[in-house]
């Protein structure tokens, strides 16, 4: 589904990713862990198309398409969606309007017509309830004045409405208390099926108690230095990252 | 987003640019008393009107063009402008649409305004101004039944001289300002509305102004009078063909609201803004003022300004009557090299007068925009209130937005509130929207429309839809 090969990425002349390779298949959940500054967020940002990053070599393909040749919105329309670590505030634009515009843009890209308003509202209300969000959220401006937890829930709400093929979650657990984390994790888990995949970037093992990954990758200094199953995350939790770094250097 | 890309996107073509070839009867460029006499004679005006014009002209000669606005343009050569241009068909004025020059109708079609259909469908009476002469007026009968007079100002001068003598120039005096004085001397057409006591006008009144002859300035004069307990909603919308030369437009609009009267005046202005370098756009110097003479009278100005190379415009309310109300809702959008200096004046004279100002400015490309607003509370305006909200939205980093709020409070019992914000459409906002699958243009439109919604909801329904579409066209590719 997603194939990242020998990816090199620089930001303002500094190389952040130094030959990263990763394969994600449908139905899989991957967690990327690693110390601060290892390039975890860079990976998902580059896949999403953030223009602040320059890909100097390597390739990214998604379902056979060259992702690096696609516009940002084309990537989203193809089913690559990023849950932001810091969701952006858009004053004046109601949440419900963003959701509707996004859903209809994605439908249009698939050659489908706009979703009729009653059907859309039914869908959104159902997902809102799932995320334990009050319907008044829909009428509020996108992320404006939202608490950290509300913003993260809102990211997952968008995922539930838009149903991406590959959901990328950038530190979706940061700033969440345990109750909010459970709600967010439940939302993410509801996306799991044999057709979809999830790529999580996280700092802490704690999230993985709620969203169990099939694979855990350790990203150190721009490369994946170790991959394993969820037990690797537990090992990282107890031993830290240093031993992996040393092991890979040896 | 990279600057080059942005620049590429900012280039857009004016989609309503074309010239219709209709034989015009035009005086040679230049202005003197004989030109004014020619205009007056062409219009079949009485002697007193000519004298009124000549007096305005004499005063104009002694005046200087204002220079205080945040605008930059070369001096205008008033002798290079032709002051009268009328379509030939005017002399044997058409009685119905069938008699109208088919090319004219074609022009409206191109503008997306199939006059006959639109008027009939929307129930809107249209007094279409094309090159300074009213070509057709619809629904006159229905208005007549209600006792509402809706006609061109020229007709009103001939047919209702008493009303004209009583009201013309009483809200905006002849020598009010440089452009108003010029207008008073040479105005060629415009609309006249009179709503008798107790009558609510049975339909929205609408006039579409077009400018279509090279080098012809348009000097519209509009006068709306609402008697006691009368109500009217007037809609004014403008587009213009693409031209090479700058075209001067100096209109005067006067509104008179008597006791308990309500006038709602809505404008969507989409004149040619000039090319990428700002060449050839319309200069729009307009004086719009309402006189709330009667107690509890109310005037509401709503404007969506997207066009013109230069806009100089401050629709104002003089709140004379006790408990009278003035409102100003404005969206101004500038792109390319457009310059706009716009805002309002709320002059509180009577007791308990209230005013509301909501101004939304959107600047993109290399454009410059200023909000200039005066709230003046007189000594007798006990308990007067004003609320002002003034927001600016910048798109890209080569445009500017400025706010000049003036307050003159002559009364300690008054309440005056002012709120202002400036924000920018950020790359992070665009990235966020695009990452949800929304195209960049749609994202900009979504953000801009969200920003303007407080004003759009003040527009009559059919206008709100048009305004939103117009904004999207104006900002096409204006991303940064």
From TrEMBL, chain A:
What range does the record give for the signal peptide?
Answer: none
| ABC transporter domain sequence ranges | 2-246
Ordered alphabetically, the record's keywords are: ATP-binding, Nucleotide-binding
InterPro entries referenced in this protein's UniProt entry, alphabetically: AAA+_ATPase, ABC_transporter-like_ATP-bd, ABC_transporter-like_CS, FeS-cluster_ATPase_SufC, P-loop_NTPase
| One Pfam entry name | ABC_tran
- SMART domains (UniProt xref): AAA
What the record says about family reads: Belongs to the ABC transporter superfamily. Ycf16 family.
Q: What is the name attached to this protein's record?
A: Fe-S cluster assembly ATPase SufC
Species per Swiss-Prot/TrEMBL record: Modicisalibacter luteus
UniProtKB/TrEMBL annotation, chain B:
Q: Name one Pfam family in it.
A: SUFBD_core
Q: Where is the SUF system FeS cluster assembly SufBD N-terminal domain?
A: 140-200
Enumerate the InterPro entries for this protein: Fe-S_cluster_assembly_SufBD, SUF_FeS_clus_asmbl_SufB, SUF_FeS_clus_asmbl_SufBD_core, SUF_FeS_clus_asmbl_SufBD_sf, SufBD_N
Q: Where is the SUF system FeS cluster assembly SufBD core domain?
A: 209-451
Family annotation (SUPFAM superfamilies): Stabilizer of iron transporter SufD
Which protein family is named in the record?
Belongs to the iron-sulfur cluster assembly SufBD family.
Q: What is this protein called?
A: Fe-S cluster assembly protein SufB
| Organism name | Modicisalibacter luteus
């Amino acid at each position: 589904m997603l194939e990242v090969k020998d990816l090199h990425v620089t930001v303002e002349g500094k190389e952040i990713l130094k030959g990263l390779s990763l394969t994600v298949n449908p139905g899989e959940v991957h967690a990327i862990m690693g110390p601060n500054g290892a390039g975890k967020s860079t990976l998902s940002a580059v896949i999403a198309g953030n223009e602040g990053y320059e890909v100097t070599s390597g390739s990214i393909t998604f379902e056979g398409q060259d992702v690096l040749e696609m516009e940002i919105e084309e990537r989203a329309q193809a089913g690559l969606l990023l849950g932001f670590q810091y969701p952006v505030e858009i004053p004046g634009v109601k949440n419900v309007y963003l959701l509707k515009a996004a859903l209809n843009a994605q439908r249009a890209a698939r050659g489908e017509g706009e979703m009729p308003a009653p059907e859309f509202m039914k869908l959104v209300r159902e997902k809102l309830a799932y995320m334990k969000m009050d319907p008044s959220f829909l009428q509020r401006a996108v992320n404006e004045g939202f608490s950290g937890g509300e913003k993260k829930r809102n990211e997952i709400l968008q995922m539930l409405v838009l149903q991406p093929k590959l959901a990328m979650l950038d530190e979706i657990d940061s700033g969440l208390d345990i109750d909010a984390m459970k709600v967010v994790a439940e939302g993410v888990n509801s996306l799991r099926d044999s057709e979809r995949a999830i790529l999580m970037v996280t700092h802490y093992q704690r999230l993985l108690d709620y969203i169990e990954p099939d694979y855990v990758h350790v990203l150190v200094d721009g490369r994946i230095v170790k991959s394993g199953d969820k037990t690797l995350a537990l090992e990282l939790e107890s031993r830290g990252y240093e031993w992996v770094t040393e092991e890979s250097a040896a | 987003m990279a600057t080059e890309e942005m620049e590429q996107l900012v280039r857009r073509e004016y989609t309503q640019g074309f010239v219709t070839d209709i034989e015009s009867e035009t005086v040679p460029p230049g202005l003197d008393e004989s030109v004014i006499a020619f205009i007056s004679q062409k219009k079949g005006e009485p002697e007193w009107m000519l004298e009124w014009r000549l007096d305005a002209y004499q005063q104009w000669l002694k005046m200087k063009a204002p220079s205080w606005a945040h605008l930059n343009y070369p001096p205008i050569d008033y002798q290079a402008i032709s002051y009268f241009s009328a379509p030939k068909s005017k002399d044997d004025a058409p009685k119905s649409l069938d008699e109208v020059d088919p090319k004219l109708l074609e022009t409206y079609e191109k503008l997306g305004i199939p006059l006959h259909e639109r008027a009939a469908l929307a129930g809107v009476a249209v007094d279409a101004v094309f090159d300074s002469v009213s070509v057709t007026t619809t629904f006159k009968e229905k208005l007549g039944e209600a006792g509402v007079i809706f006609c061109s100002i020229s007709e009103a001068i001939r047919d209702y001289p008493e009303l004209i003598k009583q009201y013309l120039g009483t809200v905006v005096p002849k020598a009010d300002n440089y452009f108003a004085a010029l207008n008073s001397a040479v105005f060629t057409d415009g609309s006249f509305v009179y709503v008798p006591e107790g009558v609510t006008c049975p339909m929205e009144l609408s006039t579409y102004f077009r400018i279509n002859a090279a080098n012809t300035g348009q000097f519209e004069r509009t006068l709306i009078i609402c008697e006691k307990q009368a109500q009217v909603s007037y809609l004014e919308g403008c587009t213009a063909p693409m031209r090479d030369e700058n075209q001067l437009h100096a209109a005067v609009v006067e509104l008179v609201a008597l006791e308990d009267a309500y006038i709602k005046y809505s404008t969507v202005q989409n004149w040619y803004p000039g090319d990428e370098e700002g060449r050839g756009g319309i200069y729009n110097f307009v004086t719009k003022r309402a006189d709330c003479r009667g107690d509890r009278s109310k005037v509401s100005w709503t404007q969506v300004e997207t066009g013109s190379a230069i806009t100089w415009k401050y629709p104002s309310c003089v709140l004379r009557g006790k408990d009278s109300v003035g409102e100003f809702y404005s969206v101004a959008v500038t792109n390319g090299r457009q310059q706009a200096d716009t805002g309002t004046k709320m002059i509180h004279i009577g007791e308990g007068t209230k005013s509301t100002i909501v101004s939304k400015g959107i600047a993109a490309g290399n454009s410059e925009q200023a909000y200039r607003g005066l709230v003046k509370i007189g000594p007798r305006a006990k308990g007067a209130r004003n609320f002002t909200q003034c927001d600016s939205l910048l798109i890209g980093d080569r445009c500017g937005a400025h706010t000049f709020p003036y307050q003159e409070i002559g009364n300690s019992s008054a309440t005056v509130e002012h709120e202002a914000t400036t924000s920018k459409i950020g790359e992070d906002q665009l990235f966020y929207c695009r990452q949800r699958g929304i195209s960049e243009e749609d994202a900009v439109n979504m953000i801009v429309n969200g920003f303007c919604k407080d004003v759009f909801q003040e527009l009559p329904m059919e206008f709100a839809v048009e305004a939103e579409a117009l904004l999207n066209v104006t900002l096409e590719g204006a991303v940064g």
